[in-house]
Amino acid sequence: MSVAGESGRAQQMRAKAQEIKDEAARTTDPKERQRLTERARRLLEQSEQEGRGGSQKREPM
Fold it and tell me: Which of 45, 56, 53 is nearest to 14 (CA)?
């Protein structure tokens, strides 16, 4: 995968994390809000790794 592809994937992951955060802000159930907030946090962490090319699942070049 190209560097541009990795960057695009990372951007998509960050956008999805923002959507999840927005959904968490709208929910009235505290447990659901916490679940969504944690999901968004994990997705952001993954996007940072993806952006750095730090995924362990990639094949060596």
Answer: 45
